[in-house]
Amino acid sequence: MLILSCSSKLRLLEGTLRRHLPDTLLVYGTMMTINRGNPTAQEVLVDSWPEFKVVLTRPRREVASDDSDLFTNTYTVYSRDLGDYQALLASAGAVNWGQSFCILGLQDGVYEAYKDIAEAKGIKLEVFRYFNYFHPDPSSMPEIRSVLDPAMRLSSLDVSHADLLNETWSFGGNEKSRKYLATLIRHFPSFCLLDSAGHPVSWIASYPFHALGPGYTLPQHRRHGYMGMLNNLLAKRLHALGYPSYGYVDVENYPMQRLQEKQGFQHQPNLWYFILHNPALVNAPTLTPRPVPGTAPT
Ligand SMILES: CC(C)(COP(=O)(O)OP(=O)(O)OC[C@H]1O[C@@H](n2cnc3c(N)ncnc32)[C@H](O)[C@@H]1OP(=O)(O)O)[C@@H](O)C(=O)NCCC(=O)NCCS
């Protein structure tokens, strides 16, 4: 196991991962964040260098100071060999087994490989599977004509909106999730629509691994094309900045799936795995998505 800290190696790794998109999404998006200022203080581990089969990104020790903060303690993984992935996970210091953390990966088998090790340690796990959508060329997305009534204004999210996002995000509802959402708003591209009083009615942010989301439209404002417009704008903005355009959608969220497909996002054959590690010794909040106001598709 090696921690890559040399900037030329990090740039080289980014270039190699780019050639293997969309399989390398998540780690590639995180690498871009690291190589462009690293606002969320991530670091990169590989099984070997310059030939590698596994890449794991994780928060640096100094930011992962809260053992129960599943949001800050988020890892992303890309693995071409599950045996090497298991070996990396098992090597001393790769993963902080004393913490609650979340591993995000796209390769089939990343959950099973991890589960074997966690079970041998008697560790409690949860896994969530989502559909993975990727747009190969957002510049070809159709122009969205404005759907705004004259009183509405297009803007980006502001940190003062973090409470609203926290109330409506299916993983939100606590202080750690509020802090995480404020970090997204502060450092990563977002769009929102404000009503005449300046309150957001529809919004979409982006993650440190540059996936689209969280997105939400207040129930009384749905089916006006707002999310279609914001999703389109954010995909194009991320593309213009050089980032890939992709995101995860709940397997039962048919409106969001239809919306993605109408805009040319391709449903990828592999799933998106959220693997949550809650060691019994830590009184950790669960990250199980909770019902939020107006979540049920209508
Ligand atoms: C999913 C959600 C964001 C859609 O927001 P919205 O502003 O209503 O979306 P739009 O009006 O732009 O709809 C765009 C397309 O989505 C689909 N769609 C949206 N709502 C739908 C619904 N209730 N039923 C069926 N299709 C729907 C349609 O394809 C629609 O286009 P069409 O009406 O021209 O056929 C909104 O329902 C929501 O906030 N849900 C709860 C949170 C959530 O699921 N967030 C996404 C997480 S990935």
From TrEMBL:
InterPro entries registered for this protein in UniProt: Acyl_CoA_acyltransferase, Glycine_N-acyltransferase, Glycine_N-acyltransferase_C, Glycine_N-acyltransferase_N, GNAT_dom
Gene3D superfamilies, sorted: 3.40.630.30
UniProt KW Transferase keyword: yes
GO CC entries: mitochondrion
Keywords, ordered alphabetically: Acyltransferase, Transferase
PROSITE patterns xrefs: GNAT
Keyword Acyltransferase on entry: yes
UniProt signal peptide: none
GO molecular function: glycine N-acyltransferase activity
EC numbers for this chain: 2.3.1.-
Domain N-acetyltransferase: start-end pairs: 152-288
Family designation: Belongs to the glycine N-acyltransferase family.
Name of the protein in its database record: Glycine N-acyltransferase-like protein
Organism, scientific name: Chelonoidis abingdonii
Gene expressing this chain: LOC116833434
